[in-house]
Amino acid sequence: MRQTGESTNNNKKKIFFKLKIRHEYLYKMMLNTITMKVVGVSFEGRQTPISELTINNALYLKPEPDNRYDSNAIQVFDENDNRLGYIPKQFAKLLKNKITDRHKVSEFKRYGGGNRKNYGIEIKFNY
Fold this sequence. Notes:
By secondary structure, this protein is of the alpha+beta class. It is built from 3 helices and 7 strands, in the order H-E-H-E-E-E-H-E-E-E. A hairpin with a 6-residue loop joins strand 6 and strand 7.
């Protein structure tokens, strides 16, 4: 099946957008500081502790080498040891040897929520 000119252009735009995002992450990584969205925030009751986060809370990173799905997994949790999610898989593999137990997140932003939408978290940390 042959693609139309419009669908080919849409595919090119999607690929360019993905490359642009990866380039921005890699640029931020070169500065030893990275900002990223936390994944897995909608599983295992994680929305409740995320909805209760305030500016006074501290977030931490913790490697999880015994994770049955990914031995490079790095979890994000709060000061009460509530697991909030994970660093995206492609970045966890690159950062696994640079993140120590209870590695502090320097900044975070909660977004979303309300109108039956899930909350999300964006984190920033040095490595």
